[in-house]
Amino acid sequence: MMIFAFDVLKKDFSVIISAAMVGAIVFGLAFYSALTVSETHDKDLEFVE
Fold first, then answer.
1. Which residue spans traverse the membrane (predicted)?
2. Quick one: which of 3, 9, 31, 34 has its CA closest to 21?
3. CA torsion angle for 10, 18, 7, 33 (degrees, to 10)?
């Protein structure tokens, strides 16, 4: 997916700019995922089957 986005962007922009744009998008998604992940620190994890 990232390689496809890089190839598409490489047609209109330089290699450096394309890599920076893909990197910024991926970094933003990773940061969003880290902030919205469910925290299990103070939860009761003793599940009954």
1. 12-35
2. 9
3. -160
